[in-house]
Amino acid sequence: MSAECRTVVNVGPSHPSTHGVCRVLVELDGEIVRRAEPIIGYLHRGIEKMAENRSYLQVVPLTDRLDYVGSMYANWAYCRAVERLAGIRVPERAEYIRVIVCELQRIASHMMSIGSTGADTGAFTAFMYAFNQREQVVDLFEALSGSRLTYNYVRPGGVGADLPEGWVERCREFVAQHPAAMMEIDDLLFGNVICRARTKGIGVLTPHDAIGWGASGPVARGSGVDWDLRRDDPYSVYPRLDFTVPLGERGDCYDRGRVRLWECVESCRIVTQALDQLEPGPVQAEGLPRLLAPRPGDAYDHIESARGSLGVYLVSDGSVRPYRMHVRSPAFANLALLPMLAEGHTLSDLVVVLGSLDPVFGEVDR
Question: Is the pTM value of this prediction over 0.85?
């Protein structure tokens, strides 16, 4: 079919399968995608610019609105940059709590992604199974921070409050049952012949392209790229914890989904070890002023979020407000792969490919 006969279709920005306010301008040759251009910016709020007019502590609630499916991570990445900039030492108990809540956040985020994969491929039951697990994590976070979405829990110098009474026991109960629930979802969804037909061989990303395009997280590891900041550029108390990094082989939608599933199982191992090693102590650095004013300079720190390498760059001019803040968004880098991965597939495959990249547009647009 000639280019003149191709059909241009807008998918989104309010389509439920675009996983947020993403608009994809699709050029179709019958049912085959010849070009797919993601158009972003519908959720842009200028968070990085807003940070210049707030104190360092007041910026924390803004980071909640970046990756709103994984707010704990956004809190932590920002706070680590502040702590590096200001030379703040975080108490050991607070570091363990950060690891615990962020590994639970990884599970909650991946449940959203895996559940959406089920919905995108017609397996709504898998969506309900995944969200049952996610709700249990959200209940734990509500008991911890009072919120179910934007937690504002990790703070510069530590965390907002210590673990409430009975929370550790509830957390242990959750991580004890979660691996079996993952095996059930693995059989129900990824073991299903329809899901396999819809995801295997679809949106194949080679390791060379994954590295070249700056992909990270499950998107890169699904292609066999053996890189995880928790292990390869270790931070916090991760060097004391034993875990493996799941990898895919083919780099298709199936592998990216299953890598997320196995990461949830590994997160349970990490949380269990962290709970075992958790000792009494303070959860906030002592002597921090209400208004931090780091010496002039800059700092960058990054962590392994559910979507990949999430980094925050801060510049201080010596005042109580950041002079400049920039967020390195893994979701933004991963989304750039969509035109390449979708080309040559059908329109229905485009939805599956987009979902396999697991974009969150609060972080993409900022």
Answer: yes
In this structure, which topology does domain 55-338 adopt according to CATH? Answer: Cytochrome-c3 Hydrogenase; chain B (1.10.645)
Question: Which residues, including other chains, have CB under 8 Å from residue 63's CB and lie 6 or more apart?
Answer: 47, 71, 74, 75, 77, 78
Q: Which token pair is 111?
A: 């449940």
Q: Which two tokens stand for residue 310?
A: 């999430």
Specify the amino acid at residue 235. Y
Separation of alpha carbons 329 and 307, rounded Å: 9
pLDDT digits (tens, 9 = 90+) for 283-336: 998 888 888 889 999 999 999 998 989 999 999 998 999 999 999 999 898 989
Cross-sheet strand order for the sheet of 324-328: 297-304, 309-316, 324-328
Sheet of strand 7-11: strand arrangement: 7-11, 23-29, 32-39
Domain ranges of the chain: 55-338
Q: Is the pLDDT of residue 2 over 60?
A: no
Task: Output the six-digit token pair for 36.
Answer: 């797919």
Contact (CB, 8 A) for 223 and 207 = yes
Per DSSP bridges, beta strands 324-328 and 309-316 are antiparallel
- Rg (the chain; Cα; Å): 21
3-class secondary structure per residue, the chain: CCHHHCEEEEECCCCHHHCCCCEEEEEEECCEEEEEEEECCCCCCCHHHHHHHCCCCCCHHHHHCCCCCCHHHHHHHHHHHHHHHHCCCCCHHHHHHHHHHHHHHHHHHHHHHHHHHHHHCCCHHHHHHHHHHHHHHHHHHHHHHCCCCCCCCEECCEECCCCCCCHHHHHHHHHHHHHHHHHHHHHHHHCCHHHHHHHCCCCCCCHHHHHHCCCCCHHHHCCCCCCCHHHHCCCCCHHHCCCCCCCCCCCCHHHHHHHHHHHHHHHHHHHHHHHHHCCCCCCECCCCCCCCCCCCEEEEEEEECCCCEEEEEEEECCCCCCCEEEEECHHHHHHCCHHHHHCCCEHHHHHHHHHHCCCCHHHHHC
Q: pLDDT tens for residues 77-102?
A: 999 999 999 989 999 999 999 999 99
